[in-house]
Write a structure and sequence with these properties.
single chain, about 160 residues, Rossmann fold, 5 helices
Length: about 160
């Protein structure tokens, strides 16, 4: 099951049960002794793209993965902010976005202490863009036409030791 995260601080676990009809689920911070049943922390993936439909597609393709939790951001600045306030294991980064582009965001994220892995996911056919992402610290680059390969990469990363 893929869970969405929007405003949870780094030290607060995700919500696991919906609240009563029409009511939000209680925050984990409302129950200080809350712990996931199996003590397992989900693998957190931040998908950064200004196209909401693409973020939804990634979410849909991973919805059966119980151990993957998805966050999303519509631009690089939002991604940098989320990485600063939420634990993230992997960032999937588009290039061309408003506010802050993917290269600048990748540089900012990879410059942080204990940064998450960043994977570029762009529709550019310019090989120099691939090189630029790798130079900024990206671990890999996938073209948007390689969605199956990207999803396989995410699943493999989620299964690897952290």
């Amino acid at each position: 099951m893929v869970r969405a995260v929007t405003d949870r601080p780094r030290d607060v676990p995700p919500r696991t049960q919906p609240g009563p009809a029409g009511q939000p689920a209680p925050a984990a911070s409302d129950s200080p002794d809350w712990m996931p049943a199996d003590g397992h922390t989900p693998f957190r993936v931040l998908v950064v793209d200004d196209v909401a439909e693409l973020r939804l597609l990634v979410r849909t393709l991973l919805e059966d993965e119980r151990d993957i939790e998805l966050l999303d951001a519509g631009d690089g600045a939002e991604a940098v902010s989320l990485v600063g306030t939420h634990p993230v294991d992997l960032v999937i980064m588009d290039m061309y976005m408003p506010v802050m582009d993917g290269l600048e965001a990748t540089h900012a994220i990879r410059s942080a202490d204990a940064p998450p892995e960043v994977v570029a996911f762009t529709s550019s056919i310019d090989g120099r863009l691939n090189e630029a992402f790798l130079a900024e610290g990206a671990a890999a680059h996938f073209d948007k036409g390689e969605m199956t390969s990207l999803i396989a990469y995410i699943k493999a990363a989620a299964r690897s030791p952290r």
